Every structure is written in C-alpha cells, then in structure tokens.
Amino acid sequence: RSEINPYSKHLKVLDLRLSDAGIYTCEYGSHTVSISLHVFKLTISLDGYFLPNEVPELTLMQNSPHPLPDLDITLFNSNNNIVRPTLLQDKTHQKYILKLKQLEATDSGTWMCHVHSDSPLINQNISFDVKVLGFQSPDLERKYATVDSTVILSWHLNFQKIKWKEGFTGQLNWKQQDSATAHELLDFNVTSRGEWHETKKSSRFRFEIPKSKPESTIEVKLPKVHFNHSGQYQCQLAYNKRYVQSKIELVVMKVSANPVGPLPRGAEMTLICQVSSPLPSNAHLLWERVNGTLMDIKKSKQDETKVEVTVSAAGLWNCHLIEDNDRKISLNYPVEEASVWIRYVVIGASIGGSVLLFGLACMCIISGISWQRRRQRAKRMARARQYLLENKTCQCQQ
Known about the structure:
Residues 266-330 form the Ig-like domain. By secondary structure, this protein is mainly β. 13% of the residues lie in helices and 45% in strands.
C-alpha cells in the first residue's frame, strides 16, 4: 500500500488506516529525518444516507505514536453554520462520538469537521457528506380551495441533488376527514440514476397528473373541486425499509342560501358559509356585505365550521376565510330582489287559486242541493205509488 517517488523520495501510503500511525524515518547517508504520522478516521452512521427526523451519529477516532491529545471538535453543516452535537468520549481520547439532532431535508450537503489541538498543534478539516431524502415542504401543510375551483397539490423532493446508491419508491394516498380508509391515487419509483416513473392507480377519483411540472416534484391537479374532495393527501417515500411522509390537508369552502331564489319584498333569507373541516385557532369565517356597514358583518366563533347571516334586502355578500388576518379564499353570493312582475304573478296565482277553490266549493254545494231534491222527489213518488196500491178496489157486474 505504499510507494516511493524515486526523484523526490516522497513516500505515498495508500488506503490509509489507523494502524498506519507511527514514526517514519528517512536515512540518506549520515542524515536521518523522522516524521510522526497522526491518523484520524471519521465515520457516519447509515453510511450518510438519512430520512428526515433521523439522528446521525459521528465517530471520530485517532491514533498516534505519541500520547493522544484531547481534541476540540467543531462541526459545520452544509450551510456553514456551527452545529453543536452531544459529545461522548472515552478516557484515552482515542474515540469521540458526536450525536447530532434530528435532520431536515435542507441539511443535505457536505459538512465539515474541524479538529484542533494545541499540543501537538493540529488544525485538521475533515469533510463528509450527509444525504437526507425528503420533502422541501413541511410535514403538514394546509391548503384552502372553493367549490368548483382548480387546485394543484405539490410535493417537492430533493433527490435530484443527491447521488443515491439505491432507488426508492413512493405513493400518494387520500382519505376524507375522520375516515380511516385511505385511497391510493398514484405510486412512483425513482432509480439510483434518477429515472422517474409514475402510475395512476385510481379511476373513480377525478384528478390529473400534469405533463409539465417542476423537476423532482409529485403533483396532482383537481380540475373541479367538490366539497367531498376535502381531506388529507399523504405522499410517502420508502427508502431501504424506512419511511417518511408529508401531508397536505385540503379544506374546501362553499356558500348557499335558504330559501334559494330571489328575495321577495318583506321576506328574509339565510346565507350559509361552510368549510369541510374544522379550522385552526388562528382562522375564522367572515360574512360581509359589499358597501355595507359594520352591522353587516358576521364572524364565526372558534371551532365553528360554518357561519350564517340573515338578510332582508338585496345586495352582494362575500364570505372570507381569514387566517392570521390574511384572506386565504373568498366566495360571493348575490342576493336579488324578486321582480315586480314576479310579485304580480304570485298575487295573481294566489287570487286565481282562491277563485278556483271558491268555484269548486260552489259547484259541490249546487250539486249536493240538486241531488238532495231528486232524492226527495223520488221518495214522494214512491209513497204515492204505495198509497194507490193500498186503496185500489174492484167492481163486478151482477
């Protein structure tokens, strides 16, 4: 594992090991030069391939022909920020174990371990790679949409920047709020060379896989959102029998009125604004009338999934979903007043119905009287016939 340059007399040791530490002496005639070789070995758990929230462990070992110094170790992450791990070491100063905190996908990259000692003087930088396969988005993201709108749900991965020694697989599932049944929408796999394959699994759930999308992205498109499309959309990655997932909770909002239709003069109508699942504590629903006053505002209470407002006049009303004083989505509902001719039609229909009922009642009364008279006449004729039969006499000639 060693070779000597015949011109420079340099000694090259290949595949350096801890056991190679020692004193190397070069003799040339009456001249003797000795060099002490101090060897460090840095290893990382799981060969440096991690999923988010996993905790790496670094092991730094040293060997020297002299007494081993007590080392000062400083870690720098891929963003060149200092990381303060939990440090464990044995009494001989031969082995140092550094336990890091939970990783995030943004931690991927080249890290630096700086080793320092005053006696002997050591200032050594040891670089190592940390590869974290995961999502650039949060573990749980909330997205708002209105009924009949178009929604695109995206999960951005970071695998393109990393050379993976193995491929990984994944799938996208959806389940409705408070439902234990998950429906698989699509699955995918990525080879170690970065080749991407997707397969659509559900034919009943209406969604599309966009043809053009950002690189390293899982994306589905809901062209026309229904109220029951709400729920959790979960994207899961599997690498070397370990899993990581990221969820998007889709909250859908709709507005309606009771009763439906134009508002007659003097009548009232209830406007209903509703969301598909409970809102977080920093969000609420708000009805407001366009160009209205403070009296024309109705706000939902905490943990309410709908808010109602009673209106008695025509106008345009807007329902807003507000989170941290930021309007996320809005829907409007125009309240129209019933036209004059519609009121006349209603009044005419009412009068016509009353007249028709009165006419039917009169016909029933007249028919009843006529039937009663015929019945009485028939009874009188029957009594007359009976009387004639009882008083009939027969005369004979003598």
